[in-house]
Amino acid sequence: MVVSHEQTDGVWRVRVTGDVDLATARALEHELDTAFRSCARRIDLDLVDAVLWDGSAFSVLADAAQRADQEGIMLALVGISAALRRVLDVADLPEITHLTDAAPARRVDDEAC
After folding, report:
1. DSSP per-residue letters across 37-95
2. Helix axis angle, 25-37 relative to 55-71, nearest 10°?
3. Least C-beta-crowded within 10 Å: which of 53, 88, 95, 110?
Protein backbone atom coordinates (compact mmCIF):
# COMPACT_ATOMS: atom_id res chain seq x y z
CA MET A 1 0.00 0.00 0.00
CA VAL A 2 1.08 3.54 -0.72
CA VAL A 3 -0.48 6.47 1.13
CA SER A 4 0.06 10.05 0.03
CA HIS A 5 -1.63 13.34 0.77
CA GLU A 6 -2.10 16.89 -0.35
CA GLN A 7 -3.63 19.83 1.46
CA THR A 8 -5.72 22.40 -0.37
CA ASP A 9 -7.91 25.17 1.00
CA GLY A 10 -8.80 23.41 4.25
CA VAL A 11 -9.18 19.98 2.61
CA TRP A 12 -6.67 17.23 3.42
CA ARG A 13 -6.82 14.59 0.69
CA VAL A 14 -5.39 11.17 1.60
CA ARG A 15 -4.83 8.89 -1.39
CA VAL A 16 -4.64 5.14 -0.86
CA THR A 17 -3.14 2.86 -3.49
CA GLY A 18 -3.08 -0.93 -3.11
CA ASP A 19 -4.18 -3.21 -0.28
CA VAL A 20 -5.19 -2.00 3.16
CA ASP A 21 -4.81 -4.93 5.51
CA LEU A 22 -3.33 -5.84 8.87
CA ALA A 23 0.19 -5.18 7.60
CA THR A 24 -0.59 -1.72 6.18
CA ALA A 25 -3.52 -0.33 8.19
CA ARG A 26 -1.19 1.36 10.69
CA ALA A 27 0.31 3.53 7.92
CA LEU A 28 -3.19 4.67 6.94
CA GLU A 29 -4.02 5.33 10.58
CA HIS A 30 -0.87 7.46 10.91
CA GLU A 31 -1.71 9.48 7.79
CA LEU A 32 -5.26 10.08 8.99
CA ASP A 33 -3.95 11.13 12.41
CA THR A 34 -1.70 13.65 10.68
CA ALA A 35 -4.71 14.96 8.76
CA PHE A 36 -6.72 15.35 11.97
CA ARG A 37 -3.86 17.28 13.59
CA SER A 38 -3.71 19.64 10.62
CA CYS A 39 -6.04 22.60 10.23
CA ALA A 40 -8.28 20.69 7.82
CA ARG A 41 -12.01 21.28 7.89
CA ARG A 42 -12.52 18.25 5.67
CA ILE A 43 -10.60 15.02 5.08
CA ASP A 44 -11.12 13.26 1.76
CA LEU A 45 -10.06 9.63 1.78
CA ASP A 46 -9.44 8.87 -1.90
CA LEU A 47 -9.99 5.16 -2.48
CA VAL A 48 -10.02 5.11 -6.28
CA ASP A 49 -6.85 2.96 -6.36
CA ALA A 50 -7.48 0.99 -3.15
CA VAL A 51 -7.68 -2.70 -3.98
CA LEU A 52 -8.36 -4.79 -0.87
CA TRP A 53 -9.84 -3.84 2.50
CA ASP A 54 -9.83 -6.20 5.44
CA GLY A 55 -11.19 -5.92 8.98
CA SER A 56 -8.24 -3.89 10.25
CA ALA A 57 -8.83 -1.33 7.48
CA PHE A 58 -12.49 -1.00 8.46
CA SER A 59 -11.44 -0.54 12.08
CA VAL A 60 -9.21 2.39 11.04
CA LEU A 61 -12.08 3.83 9.00
CA ALA A 62 -14.57 3.47 11.86
CA ASP A 63 -12.15 5.16 14.29
CA ALA A 64 -11.56 7.99 11.81
CA ALA A 65 -15.29 8.47 11.28
CA GLN A 66 -15.89 8.64 15.03
CA ARG A 67 -13.03 11.11 15.49
CA ALA A 68 -14.28 13.27 12.61
CA ASP A 69 -17.71 13.38 14.20
CA GLN A 70 -16.27 14.33 17.61
CA GLU A 71 -14.04 17.04 16.16
CA GLY A 72 -16.59 18.47 13.71
CA ILE A 73 -14.51 17.57 10.66
CA MET A 74 -16.13 16.21 7.51
CA LEU A 75 -14.71 12.83 6.50
CA ALA A 76 -15.51 11.97 2.88
CA LEU A 77 -14.82 8.69 1.12
CA VAL A 78 -13.99 9.50 -2.49
CA GLY A 79 -14.08 7.12 -5.44
CA ILE A 80 -15.32 4.05 -3.63
CA SER A 81 -16.12 0.96 -5.66
CA ALA A 82 -19.58 -0.60 -5.78
CA ALA A 83 -18.24 -3.58 -3.82
CA LEU A 84 -16.82 -1.39 -1.06
CA ARG A 85 -20.06 0.60 -0.93
CA ARG A 86 -22.02 -2.64 -0.33
CA VAL A 87 -19.67 -3.58 2.51
CA LEU A 88 -20.05 -0.11 4.03
CA ASP A 89 -23.83 -0.44 3.82
CA VAL A 90 -23.68 -3.73 5.74
CA ALA A 91 -21.18 -2.30 8.23
CA ASP A 92 -23.50 0.66 8.87
CA LEU A 93 -20.66 3.14 8.29
CA PRO A 94 -22.38 5.35 5.65
CA GLU A 95 -24.37 7.03 8.40
CA ILE A 96 -21.21 8.40 9.99
CA THR A 97 -19.24 9.14 6.82
CA HIS A 98 -19.87 11.05 3.62
CA LEU A 99 -19.62 9.10 0.38
CA THR A 100 -18.70 11.23 -2.61
CA ASP A 101 -17.26 11.19 -6.08
CA ALA A 102 -15.88 14.72 -5.68
CA ALA A 103 -13.13 15.79 -8.04
CA PRO A 104 -9.74 16.54 -6.49
CA ALA A 105 -9.43 20.07 -5.20
CA ARG A 106 -7.04 22.52 -6.85
CA ARG A 107 -3.61 22.20 -5.26
CA VAL A 108 -2.04 25.22 -3.57
CA ASP A 109 0.89 25.68 -1.22
CA ASP A 110 0.23 24.68 2.37
CA GLU A 111 -0.65 27.70 4.45
CA ALA A 112 -0.66 28.29 8.19
CA CYS A 113 -4.02 27.91 9.92
Report:
1. HTT-SEEEEEEEEEEEE-HHHHHHHHHHHHHHHHHT-EEEEES--HHHHHHHHHHTGGG
2. 10
3. 95
Alpha helices in 1-41 (DSSP H): 25-37
Query: Alpha carbon of 85 to those of 35, 42, 53, 58, 81: distances in Å?
Result: 23, 20, 12, 12, 6
Per DSSP, the three-state class of 99 is: strand
pLDDT band for position 58 (50/70/90)? confident
Residue type, position 21, single letter: D
Residue 39: predicted pLDDT: 83
Pairing state between β 11-20 and 2-8:
antiparallel
Cα 39 from chain centroid? 16
Domains of the chain from N-terminus onward? 2-100 (3.30.750.24)
Is the CA virtual torsion 12, 18, 19, 25 positive or negative? negative
